Amino acid sequence: MAQLHIPVACSGLLGLLLAAGCATNPFRTATPAGPPTLTLPPGVAAPAHTLPQAAAAPSYADIDGRQLAASLERSRQETQLMQDEIAALRDQLASTSTQLAQTRAAGMPATSAAAATATGVAPATTMQSAMKDLALPGIDVRFDGAVVRLDVPADKLFEQGTANLLPGGVALLTLVSGELERVFPGHFIGIEGHIDTEPLVNVSWGSPHQLTAARAATVFEFLTTRTKMRAGQLFLVAHGSNHPLVSNATAAGRARNRRVELVVYPEHAPAGD
Question: pLDDT tens digit string along 78-105?
C-alpha cells in the first residue's frame, strides 16, 4: 500500500494552525449555533412587549346588578333609620325644654300647682300690674315670666357669714311681708337663698348651699311665726352661688348676688292649711 509522505515543514505548519484554531483553518469543525439568549446587558431596558402585563382592573359592568341594588337599599334603610332617630331626639329635647320652662315658670311642686288651679290663678297681666303697687324702697322688684321677684339684700338681713337676723333685718322682713300680704294675699311664695362665690367666713358651713338653706329657713321661720303668712303657702330653695344676678368680679356685684329672693307665684295656696 502506498504511503503519504508529508514534508516536515508542512507538518509543522499544520500543527500550528490546529493549535491556534484559526478561523480559516480548513480542518476546523463548525460549532453548531445554540438558541438566542434574551438576557440583556446591564443598563439596557427590555422592550415593552416582553414585560409581564398587569392584571386588568375589574369592571363595574361585571358586578351583579342585584348586589348593587341590595346594597343601595340597605344604605337607604340605614339613612332613614338615622333620620328617624334624630327626629325622635329632637322631639324629646323640645318636650324636655318645654317641661323645664313650665317648671321654672311654675316654680312649685305639681301638687301645689294643682291645688292652686282649683282655687284660682292670677293672669300674668294682673301679676305685673299688681307688682307696681308694692311700696318697698331699696328692694329690687322685677317681673320674671309669670312670677314677681323681690331681691332682698342678705347683708341687710343677716350677720356676716351667718343665718342670724340683724335687728334691721327683722324690720325689713316685717315691712316686706306686710306689703306681700296687702298686694298678693294668699299667693304661693318661694324663699330662695343666694350667695356670691367668695370663700365662706364661717367654717361651720360645709358649703354655700348649706348657708343659703339655713338663711332661707330663718326667713321661713320668721314669716310663719311673726307675720300672717302660713307655712302652706311658703317653700324653700337653696341655690348657693349657682345663680348670680351679675358678675362676681367686683365687690358691688358680689354684694348684689348675696340675697334672699321672695318669689310670688300667680297660684293661690289653699285656705286653712
Answer: 777 777 767 666 666 665 555 555 555 5
Distance CA 31, CA 19 (A): 16
Q: Distance (Å, rounded) from C-alpha 112 to C-alpha 120?
A: 12
| DSSP reduced 3-state for 84 | helix
Alpha carbons 38 and 50: distance in angstroms, whole number: 10
pLDDT tens digits along 25-65? 555 555 555 555 556 566 555 565 565 665 555 555 555 67
Please give the pLDDT value at position 109.
40
Neighbours of 14 (CB within 10 A): 13
Domain boundaries of the chain, sorted by first residue: 123-268
CATH of segment(s) 123-268: 3.30.1330.60
pLDDT digits (tens, 9 = 90+) for 189-216: 999 999 999 999 877 889 999 999 999 9
C-alpha cell of residue 67: 348586589
**Residue 157, number of CB atoms within 10 A of its CB:** 24
Interatomic CA distance for residues 212 and 210, integer angstroms: 6
**Contact in structure between 170 and 181 (CB atoms under 8 Å):** no
| Contact of 208 with 240, CB cutoff 8 Å | yes
Q: C-alpha distances in angstroms, 248 versus 148, 195, 209, 244, 252?
A: 24, 10, 17, 8, 8
Of all helices (H) and strands (E), which one includes residue 73? helix 65-106
Do 244 and 255 form a contact (C-beta atoms < 8 A)? no
